[in-house]
Structure formats: structure tokens, C-alpha cells
Amino acid sequence: MSECLFCQIASKQIPAKIHFENDDFVAFEDINPKAIVHLLIVPKKHYDAMSSLKDKDTGMLGKLLNTARIVAEQEGIAQSGYRLVINSGKDSGMEVDHLHLQLLGGSQLNAIN
Ligand code: AMP
After folding, report:
1. Does residue 63 or residue 112 have the better pLDDT?
2. Which terminus of the chain faces fewer neighbouring Cβ atoms within 10 Å, N or C?
3. pTM score, whole prediction
4. Distance between CA atoms of residues 99 and 84, nearest Å
């Protein structure tokens, strides 16, 4: 059994509040939400981080972004706006070493620049 937390959530070995799922990705609520809508969109296949991807993973990355667009529509925040975040590596503060895209929205977010 994989010890990766998000692999275990993706394979339903660990429960999560899943909002969306297709063949390649699962989107579930962040356990410690930083916004009214805070979902994690996770590839079912394990990738450590952005920094471990190869050129051949370009298609998966495109699908990941497109899934975020679909999930934002589903959550009703496409028009009001949202933020997509991908942490990668130590300096980003990445805590879970499984590539994930954070979808945040539902109210005005604090500026990051
Ligand atoms: P990152 O800092 O990019 O690695 O983000 C990891 C995110 O996963 C954090 O926002 C955590 O709150 C979230 N998280 C950690 N454990 C769980 C869990 N069991 N279910 C849902 N979200 C989690």
C-alpha cells in the first residue's frame, strides 16, 4: 500500500470530501481551508512535484488546468474569480509530496503581489 497521503485519498483508502472525479484526477476539500472554496485537485497517478515532471507530462498538466476550470464552474466561482496555486519543493512550503493544484475562491482573496 502506498504511503503517500494523496495517493491514499485518490484510491479511497483515506476518506476525503470529494467534489469531482474523472479518470485522471480527483478534487477534494482541503482539510484546513484558507478560503471559502479551497479544493485540492490531484492527479490519480503519483507525481512528486512540478520539479519532477518531464516534457512528456505536458498533456497531463494541460488536463490538470482544464480540470480546475471545470471544477471552478461546478463550484460556482468561475465568474466571481479564483486563484490556482501549485507549490513545488521546500521553499514553496509544500507539505504533501504529491503534485496538487489548489483552487481557492468564494470571496475576495488577499493580494499576493
Ligand atoms: P501544500 O502546502 O501545497 O503541500 O498543500 C497541502 C495541503 O493539503 C494543505 O493545504 C493541507 O491543509 C492539505 N491537507 C493535508 N492533509 C489533508 C487531508 N488529509 N485531506 C485534505 N487536505 C489535506
Report:
1. 63
2. C
3. 0.97
4. 13
The CA radius of gyration of the chain, in Å to the nearest whole number, is 14
> Which residue ranges form the domains of the chain, and what is each CATH number?
5-105 (3.30.428.10)
The model's pLDDT over 26-50, given as tens digits with 9 standing for 90+, comes to 999 999 999 999 999 999 999 999 9
Does ligand 1 come within 6 angstroms of the Cβ of 93? Answer: yes
Q: Whose CA is closest to 37, among 107, 94, 100, 101?
A: 107
Residue 60 grid coordinates: 497531463
Active-site annotation holds for 100:
yes
- Give the Å distance between the CA of 88 and the centre of ligand 1: 13
